[in-house]
Amino acid sequence: MTSVRTELPSAVRTSPRRTALISGASIAGPALAYWLNRYGFAVTVVEKASALRGGGYPIDVRGTALEVVRRMGILPRLREAHIELRRLTFLEGDGSEVASVDPHSLTGGAAGRDLEVRRGDLTDALYSVVRDDVEFLFDDSIDTFEQTGHGVDVTFRGGSRRTYDMVFGADGVHSRTREFLFGPEEQFHRHLGYCFAGFTMRNTFGLSHEVMMWNSPGRAAALYATGDNAEVHAFLNFAHPEPPFDAFRNPQAQRDLVAAVFADAGWEVPGMLAALRDADDLFFDAVSQIRMPRWSSGRVALVGDAAYAPSFLTGQGSSLALVGAYMLAGSLADRDHAAGFAAYEHDTRDFVTVNQDLVGEGDAALFPTTARALEQRNAMLRKLSVMPAARERPAHSALTLPEFDVIRPSAAGR
Ligand SMILES: Cc1cc2nc3c(=O)[nH]c(=O)nc-3n(C[C@H](O)[C@H](O)[C@H](O)COP(=O)(O)OP(=O)(O)OC[C@H]3O[C@@H](n4cnc5c(N)ncnc54)[C@H](O)[C@@H]3O)c2cc1C
């Protein structure tokens, strides 16, 4: 259990409350805000969207990250939101069935313990435990910042200026904070050879608690029904050797690219492409990782996808964001920024690396790029459909969370 400290270190007791600005209010941002607030920081979160962003494909919370959400008190709420996925059915190019398997046998998740929740349910739960204690600035973002001897001078896009003791980038794979600090994304972007598009569409298929996945070499189309809902998550993944940097900020270019790649595909894909044209919640990205030699510079540090996106192929993006936020805030509980950031990197990097290494370039087992590899995968799936579920992957639990002393905000003063 996290302990509540009554005796504070003299430096913390006598100095004013430290201030922190976090860019990004998705998973890493609110989780970091929660823990920094517990350690006595006055926290502001700035989010460029006009409200908390819902939507997105269902995400997993596993292993060490489960302990983080338990310590935040949101585990019961997330258990209620858990999606009970019962079946994963794979289809040939002509739509006939290859195999139908237990989802846990593929994801390495632990049945009855790990969580799969809608991304929006996780962001809502995180927001609900910080909204009263932390300042949120929606529809704004950092325009520029400058580090000085006394702090970080920030100018917001909305025009205001403020100075913070520390600034944190929790602004995702295409982090602007990272770009300010370390330069263009290309240096840290490790492309895994695919792109994907996700969006919701009407569940006209009668699907319930299940995923259907169609494959042809280099292409996959999936329909994911989280329950008996009127909507399903549609997902189109395809091999693309280079990251399409030009398309990242251009939704029409994204739609055109996906439509061209899947133009002659069978099964339900034509209907999915029609739904893609009208979707208002399209999420498109390259399948890639962010790998950086350092996650901080001066008084500014990165967390979550901004620092170490592992890609959805690992299923560990949200878990790394939650664990990283816990470790970063805890490392600062009774240290200054220099010592705290060094401890964060030292204590968290092995966990990040072992999870990022779960997948290599072009080797995503679910998305074979050649006819031969697809046939091998299908043979493996047919065997799997008659075998018991695989054991949990040790990478998910490769870090035992330390205890950090919680400082009562009132005791820390302003
Ligand atoms: C709407 C949405 C849908 C998603 N859907 C999927 C999905 O279907 N599949 C998948 O694999 N992953 C998806 N993700 C990514 C997934 O949430 C992350 O991989 C993971 O949870 C790690 O979270 P994060 O908080 O580090 O980064 P993210 O979840 O990417 O969050 C970054 C946050 O920072 C905000 N932001 C970005 N730039 C700025 C800026 N300059 N100033 C202020 N705020 C900024 C973004 O609006 C976002 O709220 C989605 C993310 C979002 C935001």
Automatic annotation (TrEMBL):
<protein>
    <submittedName>
        <fullName>FAD-dependent monooxygenase</fullName>
    </submittedName>
</protein>
<dbReference type="InterPro" id="IPR036188">
    <property type="entry name" value="FAD/NAD-bd_sf"/>
</dbReference>
<keyword id="KW-0503">Monooxygenase</keyword>
<keyword id="KW-0560">Oxidoreductase</keyword>
<dbReference type="InterPro" id="IPR051704">
    <property type="entry name" value="FAD_aromatic-hydroxylase"/>
</dbReference>
<dbReference type="InterPro" id="IPR002938">
    <property type="entry name" value="FAD-bd"/>
</dbReference>
<dbReference type="Pfam" id="PF01494">
    <property type="entry name" value="FAD_binding_3"/>
</dbReference>
<dbReference type="GO" id="GO:0004497">
    <property type="term" value="F:monooxygenase activity"/>
</dbReference>
<feature type="domain" description="FAD-binding">
    <location>
        <begin position="20"/>
        <end position="335"/>
    </location>
</feature>
